[in-house]
Amino acid sequence: MFDFEEALKKLPDSPGVYIMKNSEGEIIYIGKAVSLKNRVRQYFQNSRKDSPKVAAMVSHIAEFEYILTDTEMEALILECNLIKKHKPKYNILLKDDKHYPYIKITVNEEYPRILITRKMIKDGSKYFGPYTDSYAVKETIDAVKNIYPLRSCSQQIKYGKVVSRPCLNYQIKRCLAPCQGNIKREDYMNIVKDIILLLSGKDGELIEKLKEKMQEESEKLNFEAAAATRDKIISIQKIQQKQKIISSSFEDEDVFAAFKGIDECCMEVFFIRSGKLLGRENFFFDNIEDDEDIISQFLLRFYEERDYIPKKIIIQDEIPNMEEIEEYLSQKKGAKVYIHTPKKGEKVKLIKMAEKNAESAIEQRKFKMDKERESSKGALDEIAAILELKNYPKRIEAFDISNIQGTDPVASMVVFEDGKPKNKDYRRFKIKTVEGPNDYKSMEEVIRRRFERGLREREELQKKEINYTEGKFSVFPDLIMMDGGGGQVNIALKVLNELNISIPVCGMVKDEKHRTRGLIYNNNEAEIYKESNAFKLIARIQDEAHRFAITYHRSLRSKSIVSSVLDEIEGIGPKRKRELLKYYKTIDAIRKAPIEDLKKVEGMNEKSAEAVYNYFREYRDNID
Fold this sequence. Notes:
The protein is of the alpha+beta class and 624 residues long. It has 19 helices and 19 strands.
């Protein structure tokens, strides 16, 4: 038994990170402190008045431990890394894992290309962004390519060497065909410089340059060239009109402002590049331990996952450890980063605008959630009425089996609560006791494993005097949905009866086109109006169970296939195989990669790159 009184007495008056755990030994909160002694003791003072969320967290603390650091800065970095690793329930967690698109110009190549990428790496290329609107990025690149037709192929092109016959892009005037030696590298790079000016926000400078060129061509009576330059100017001005100038400093800045609602908080982020608002994003969270520390914690989580940190970060209020966070972000960026809290001027207006957007986002989210809740409740009421259930089906669990010719059979369990998917309760099962394609036996195994595990957990939690809702399998559904007809339903009922568990079970049946048709319950098919909320929810549950099962099945098959292919290549061991897959993601991408690119992969040398390249070249030759 953990002795809180003794542990609190021994806390040192030093900086460090404290780790709170529940009775299961799970980490539920991680925090940093200038003085561990003062900070940790605060949680257990009777006079302390906590918010309901903090009180709930403290009530679940069964033990704590700590890690000493030499400085507050070290504590800050350690806290950030531990939260990222363990994802504690009561810490601020960024659920947004999007990798925003960048525009990339491969200036490290002899004839650069312009591309969209979601990863910024130190490869000598020039990056612009990040942008939050993928469509706008594609639109921008299309507009740039219409003005400046750079090559888009991945061929290794050297000046003076003809690689191949020109492609279709050259025929339709979308490429200058450097592969044919049609343009000198100097002229090509001048075009690249114009594009860099445009994407850097220096379009005014570019337009002046083009106007001078147009005037020169006109004076030389080269009216066709002058007209072409004029058209470029018009196109650039159209791009200008779509971008809003929002900062007269014309710098790269991220603006952060939070708005706290009744039971949640929204953080709004504006991405300003070269004085132009490229996009914005908002983040919602409710597990807030300390209001004044919201932005401080958020900044660390936010930039931990970002490839690019701007020179200036604008925030609405002064934050604890501002200098330490500046230092940490500067180290990560490799250049000085400034965190600024404006008191007057246009930066304050930016903060107010971001804060207003955060408030609006909370209102919109609440309206959307209320509508969804109303729709979901209506759907569940309809299902309860159709099946004549005694209890409202708050929690629904749905099961599906996936296999192809009996290989790698798996099952999925998806969970819907109040009509919405509860992803953290989803479970996947590898079939262990069934050989060959036998869906009935496979489903029997899965249902038995799921509920036997739940009964064991309930018993263990009861002994420890812990509520059964704290377990991973101990919470049982109000309704079980099986992907299939009466056969699958009867299998589930047989297992439940043997375990002395009473839960209604229905089957989700499909029509001849493999689309949701209705429900089988008590050996009868219930008629459900296809435009009803109930039907839409059932279809969604069935699709989700199928998607989750087949995704797992494909992942297992993919790993099996990948292992067999790469294991055949001499000189490619587990480490190189792992790095190749990490770099290229798919076997198809590895198969298409040139030798020069393969050499860039960590752990690959010339010999191993040639082995991979030659293996897939022989494979292609055999296919052809």
